[in-house]
Amino acid sequence: MAIATLLISILAISGIYEKQDIIFPPYSPKFDTVVDIGVLHYDAHLNFPMTDASLNGSVEITFVVNDVLLDSVWMDAATQIQIDSVVDSTGALTFTRTDDGLWIYPIYSLYYGDTTSFKIYYSIAKADTGLYYVSDPYPTLYTLGCPEITHYWLPCREEHYQKATFKLTADVPAGYVVASNGNALDSTTLVWETNYLTAPYLISINISKYVAVKDTAIVDGDTIPLVVFVYPEDTSDAETVLNIHKQALLCYTEIYGSYPFLGEKYGAVEVSSFIYGGMEHQTITTLISSVLTDEDVLAHELAHSWWGDMVTCKDWRNVWLNEGFATYTEALYFLYTYSEDRFKTKLSDYKSNYLYGAWDFPIADPPPDQIFNYGVIYCKGAWVLHMVRCMLGDSTFYSILSTHRDSFAYKTATIEEFINICQDVSGEDLGWFFDQWVYNKGYPDVRWWYNYVPEDSILVISYSQVQDTQEVPIFRLPLEFGLVYGTDTTIASFWDSLAVQVETIYCEAEPDTVILDPHLKVLQRAFVVAGSELKRASPLPHWRVKNPVCTNRLIIDGDFSEIRMYDITGRLCKTITHRYTTLNLPSGVYYLKDAHFTQKVVIIR
Predict the structure, then answer these.
(1) Model pTM?
(2) What gap in Å lies between CA 229 and CA 279, rounded to an integer?
(3) Domains detected in the chain
């Protein structure tokens, strides 16, 4: 994707894209935290003729002053917005227009702690960004704020952390239905209001000749109004959408806690042409017609109510906290609703999308034109959470998410803050894990083999990471091998942190087969090699330790000239040149290495 035409794939669903011809402006991420004001509320009164992408009206912006003293206040507003006037309680105010906003000059200076408001009267003659109009099958007008284009149709402060409540009073021709954030305050759906803090890019207005199909979900005693706004011919599909939403709410409230916007609806609205598959506007998800009943999409977008809407990434450098979390939650939906097999299928799909994608870069702080890269941000992002869960266990994992939710509910969060919670809750130093999986790019590219030695009842397993270590580091990994005997599988577990590692397992009988990572716990691309192929990729060792668990005497079979023995700190302890070696070393774990192989030895005294 080119920066100048940021065609973002919010949901990369194979073969399901019907993209409207939308050209986004160059995306220039805002990372500086400007604390001059904190927006509290938007009160928009807007007229929509419904003949094109135009509007006129006003927005009153209430805010609190966070700076010591202000003589001017900045608001984001794109050039397609014509500012007619700005007023406050004292009367008309002077303002200065720029390409991307306006400076407003109050009559009197504003001081820390003051709460005040400006009302901006404005119009848009014909929008090309942020406000979109389509005529088929019915005249439809909708807004879009992602990634940061709400200020193309609503003067505002665009930063994610400028969360505020929102009220809309709409004037539309007869026969049109309006869908927006929060709850409708009248039976005509012309007035909407949300009392929950909302990031600017999650504010949404949708207008067409919709039919509102309603239902109710009762979850743990909480009543959640549900509504789907669809075109008249799609009312039967709305029932499917509502049923999936009810099931997803049951699942997500069980694992994450109550629906974050109790007292307000969860809704979805159909549009016939859209650049995304779905977009998680707070309490009113936008869906393109072609994915209206797609269970994967619906599960994903509802997951954003917790991860993205309630807890929002502070900026797009931290987008993993939105999209990786929602993507993993989507997989958990299939685990809780259907089966372990359906869950593993999702994980396998995510794995393929990442490993065979065209892009690779760290999850943290992605390139601006790749902030919604499906393979890296969504799929690898989901796998990172899965590996945290497998490594720490369900109880600790869900405690981490619960703490993360409670710490940043209706606020914004960073990746660093999430990592701190992981370490605080687990009591473990996980810096190494997030360094390799989040702050660095890549994955383990593995060649492995196994060989059973019947005379010694030993299974030898060699595991080699062959990725280019100048680009991607050697990963520290918890490995599992499944030793299959008929219908039974025995799991052998190891930790790997070496380019080449050889493990020896005592087995009374030769396994029928050996499976690497049988329970899908590690993101890796792995190939088992044998025969002539083995010699090219990861040759058989020309030596092996016959007694890898020993007291004082070590026996090494095979051909070698010199093998070095190291302790776990990397200190050289002994150089071995003979088959039989007396060690005279304290109990502990040691590693034998030559130019090609490494094998672990445990001394018990």
Answers:
(1) 0.86
(2) 15
(3) 34-311 (2.60.40.1730), 319-437 (1.10.390.10), 445-540 (2.60.40.1840), 544-603 (2.60.40)
